[in-house]
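Entry type: protein chain
Record version: 2
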Amino acid sequence: MTVMNILGINIKCLSYEEMYPIYADWLLQKDGRSYSLAVINVHICVSAFFDKTLRDIYNSVDLAGIDSMPFLIWARIFYKRDSDRFYAPDLLMQVSSKASEKGYTFFLYGGYPGAPDKIEEYIKKRFEGIKVVGKYSPPFRKLSAEEDLAVCKMINDAKPDFLWIGLGSPKQDVWICEHRDRLKGCIIVPSGATFDFYSGNIRQAPKWIRDMGLEWFYRLTQDFRRLWIRYTVYNIIFLVLFFFQQTHIISFDSDGFMLFLGRRTRFGNM
């Protein structure tokens, strides 16, 4: 499997068709540990560059896929891979389209109160045979140890095949890392804005805009006050850092440490 490294994160260049045999293998042992996904984009790469703890989390997942049109184009041109974009809303649609054939079951965790119900209604209208075995919208605060234990029990008792986590990045990725070994036999997918899009809370960019790689600009026009730093400052930082990586001013070793002109260094909390 082809892997490309972008700012220290190892990303697998994978198509949807290559994805399903991996899922089938993971779901063979329902009593075993769960498996985790990460969907990597510019915002995640820049955040992880400045925080090695995050970078370690993304490099510890079982499958880190491409969630950025520029990354996808890069993989197709320079790695000669017919990859697909692991964009969380599309992943939900992809897996839902196979649910009847493969017998997949879902658990929806996250979003504002009522969001999981609206997502269930949405996907059941689009696809036959969808089985949602559990839903939970957590409070907007850190759960107590007792509450967290109860959540794990609720999910394990439901025995879903796919656990969709909609807590926003990087909170959802940290949650997945902390819970992967406590949850049994499911595939945990960070779902981000999926919960907002398919529950009707936020308008999704039209497909032609997404295919052009301009979804970031569309979302910026929808919520400029909240997203302007993410889609302007972070994009500029990424371009500078990516240039440095491609010109070997910076690189990353197998442990995820940054090398500056070939010398190992700790940057920030690295």
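Comment: The mean pLDDT is 88.
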